[in-house]
Amino acid sequence: MSLLNDVSIAVTPNGYKAEKLYAVIPSSGAADMDVTRATDATRINERGLIESVLSNVPRIDYTGGGCPHILAEPQRTNLVTYSSNFSQWIKDGDSSITDNAITSPEGTSNAAKLIAGSVSSRQAIKINVTQTGNICLSVFAKASEYDVIQLTDAFNGTYFVNFNLANGTIGSSTGITGSIENYGNGWYRCKGVYTSSSLINSYRISIAQNSTDGRLLNFAGNGVNGLYIWGAQLQETKTNSQEII
């Protein structure tokens, strides 16, 4: 007996248009779902690339391959004004940014290279956003000559988490809950949730020399070597989890 014979409503992620997701059962349209979203959003398409979807269009997501699913998440606001244009971020120490250095997870040559300068200092960029409570910072990152990226605050020298881009693991951390997700082709999405209720007014993306580095350890590079970054997000979370879109 087919499952379709036993259900009164069946909605699958294959029939849709702007503002509508069609139900297979019943065929009358009585169970069709309305879709409302005020802004564009992203999904993983059938080729495994990140793709932008127009407002009010259902997001049919192929994360992990196989059959797609309907992607529905809580509304969140990205607090980072320049989420991919890292040349607009503030240099912290002797680092530099090369824009459009490599193909990003969306299949476009718009990922940047964060380069460690030749003077011993922080090799980082930062963004100034004042927030309290549970905050999640994420960035897509890919190893180059360096393979460890650190997400950290600029508040009191406490909060940080390291991500190893060579093997997709999380290293040392304090005050931040980290998670890492493999997006293929060497790209990882690195997420860090700040669980402190203290006021934090600045967030950093840093190069680290190894997975056990503490927060913002000064070192000198050669002004050429670095790692790749793309698509930063900073947003409030309801709980101290990796709830981020």
Q: What are the secondary-structure elements, in order, as H or E?
A: EEEEEEEEEEEEEEEEEEE
Task: List low-pLDDT spans.
Answer: 239-245
Counted by DSSP, the helix tally is 0
Shape: elongated
Structural class: mainly beta
Précis, in short:
With about 240 residues, the chain is mainly beta.
Explain this structure.
This protein has 245 residues and is an all-beta fold. Helices cover 0% and strands 44% of the residues. It is built from no helices and 19 strands. It has strands spanning 10-17, 20-25, 33-34, 41-44, 50-53, 60-61, 69-70, 90-93, 96-102, 111-115, 123-127, 135-142, 148-153, 160-164, 169-174, 176-184, 187-194, 203-208, 226-236.
Could you list some keywords that capture this structure?
single chain; 245 residues; mainly beta; six-stranded antiparallel β-sheet; 0% helix
Fold topology:
Blueprint: E1 10-17, E2 20-25, E3 33-34, E4 41-44, E5 50-53, E6 60-61, E7 69-70, E8 90-93, E9 96-102, E10 111-115, E11 123-127, E12 135-142, E13 148-153, E14 160-164, E15 169-174, E16 176-184, E17 187-194, E18 203-208, E19 226-236
